[in-house]
Amino acid sequence: xxxxxxxxxxxxxxxxxxxxAVEIYNRIAPRHKALPMTDPxxxxxxxTRELIKRHRIRCHRFPFxxxxxxxxxxxxxxxxxxxxxxxxxVETLTSAGVxxxxxxxxxxxxxxxxxxxxxxEEHFEFAVGMRRLFGKKRGLRQALKLAGLSAGEVLYVGxxxxxxLAARQIAIRIASVTWGVHSQSLLKEHRPDYLITTPKQLMxxxxxPEAVASVD
Length: 216
Prior knowledge:
Number of domains: 2
Number of helices: 11
CATH architecture of the largest domain: 3-Layer(aba) Sandwich
Shape: globular
């Protein structure tokens, strides 16, 4: 199927922010009476809600924790790199005439700082930063409105089970990548439309072979 627009998640999908995110969380967690993350690999097998429960993150403290986390992250965002193969994938999509945008729980300022530093900002028409973990459905709707497209013309690319759930709620197809927050087995349990292990495999889903050949 040909997609006119690819919407990317940011953290764990485009940008390799995971190690940095764990360091920041563990530094601020005591101030919010939450438990630290001592085993990041174990984290990959837990859904977001399971993770919140496991680390005793209190609901009434959650907005404050997120606000402090994003503020701390903004200081290190220019140092964050894209995952291997992502820059090439983004450039290939642009060359093939596929539009691109970002829908993320991170802030737009953080997203743009990383894109600028990695010199890929020009490939993205917009970045919708929700600044909340469970706002992806709203963010995807906003992206559709900005792009002027229907759900059937769009593919969302994410690394978490909440990305799958949000996309499914508004009938957008979802490609789940295995190099981010959630493990391949956990993603598979939630049955995304595509389970992607490399950026090259994603290109095979989005861009027709003849378009890739013309780009090469």
